[in-house]
């Protein structure tokens, strides 16, 4: 039997970031197992590639702040290309803004945030046709080169000695009494490990439940549409994120990338894109980004986003199975929080100091008890 001290299940952004962070911390007896022939084929490859720092979750916001700092100034040799296009985000919110947003805005440095009145909003993002009771330009945000980020994690991990195996789907987690003993691949191969990390996105929950964990996750589907190219689209325009409307958009491939923030629970092994969602995207686009409403669709697809019942991230040791750890349920924050999430997971795996309040907020242990009404 082959032996690996830490086996990470899933080679998307969560698993790759964790492997990289472990290697950076000196832990190289790690094997990263990816079911597909290339890492990052599912949620990592099908997201909107937007750095959004503030969100209603304080934990996700903290991890995104750490990730944003990394993207702006990665260590030498991490990536040959720029990871972040700091085009900024126009964030439209209700009036008054959420209290957590107001507090967060007060922590940003000089020049990082601009409050936009109606005239200034029209200058910054001319095609916006919606209402924005309150609007801010967040200059630290922008578009992420997800492929370069994933490649940087994987190259760094491999360079330090982490084994990355593709076309290696995991069929289950092996138990030896109360703790894990390793994993069994779909091929029948058994891989021993002292720790098993579930970073398998939409498939992490089922693997954990089969291993005896009470942690339950819910895979959902969301759709994105990219329009045909339009000469009137300026690629330097900022991202648009309208919280009250549940809509975001950004320039992409000469046109617009559009999302109406739909969310439907699905079986990750049996789902397809829902053509009916196009109507919702069209309706919101006509109201909020009217110049894009008549553009034809060049690409339309669905992607998987996985949540815990409280929609908080799940990072850390399992409450039921010794040696089982999670980096999962990152929801729509997987790319934006990747560096912070990987570093937190690695610190917990290696028994190193970390932000205790943050670790408690995302701990899988909170999901072991009964559902509390109104939580």
Describe the structure.
The chain has 375 residues and is of the alpha/beta class. It folds into two domains: 2-46 and 147-216 and 310-367, 3-Layer(bba) Sandwich (FAD/NAD(P)-binding domain); 89-139 and 219-307, D-Amino Acid Oxidase, subunit A, domain 2 (D-Amino Acid Oxidase, Chain A, domain 2, 2-Layer Sandwich). It has nine helices and 22 strands. The chain has helices at residues 13-24, 58-72, 99-105, 118-124, 146-160, 204-210, 277-288, 338-350, 356-361; strands at residues 2-3, 6-9, 30-33, 50-51, 84-85, 89-93, 113-115, 134-138, 142-144, 163-165, 170-176, 179-185, 190-192, 195-198, 218-227, 239-242, 247-252, 255-259, 264-265, 297-307, 314-317, 324-328. Strands 6, 7, 8, 15, 16, 17, 18, 19 and 20 form a nine-stranded mixed sheet that branches. A hairpin with a 2-residue loop joins strand 11 (170-176) and strand 12. The longest helix has 15 residues, at 58-72. The relative contact order is 0.20.
Map the helices and strands:
Layout: E1 2-3, E2 6-9, H1 13-24, E3 30-33, E4 50-51, H2 58-72, E5 84-85, E6 89-93, H3 99-105, E7 113-115, H4 118-124, E8 134-138, E9 142-144, H5 146-160, E10 163-165, E11 170-176, E12 179-185, E13 190-192, E14 195-198, H6 204-210, E15 218-227, E16 239-242, E17 247-252, E18 255-259, E19 264-265, H7 277-288, E20 297-307, E21 314-317, E22 324-328, H8 338-350, H9 356-361
Parallel strand pairs: 1-13, 2-3, 2-14, 3-10, 6-16, 14-22
Antiparallel strand pairs: 4-9, 5-9, 6-8, 7-8, 11-12, 12-13, 15-18, 15-19, 15-20, 16-17, 17-18, 21-22
Helix pairs in contact: 1-5, 1-8, 2-8
